[in-house]
Amino acid sequence: MNALTALASAAFGSTVHVTTLSTVGRLNQLDPRVKVAGWTVTAIVLCAVLGTIVFASRSVVVGFILGAALTPPVHRWILQRRAHAARF
Question: What's the pLDDT tens digit per position in 32-46?
């Protein structure tokens, strides 16, 4: 397994996770019809990205999964630090 490839795909997985989280947050504020269409398009794009990654190689898949799995706790930690700093 190529460590650099795994690291790069971890960064990409993290980016995809944060982008999807932001997209879903914005879609939840829209009209229900637009929301369903947006969720459908987001799901199709995610399936295409995951299909491309799975087709690439094992190191890319491992890195992508690690990046997407590690992003939520780190993102929550960053948001908590920001909220804590804003109180002072």
Answer: 888 888 888 888 888
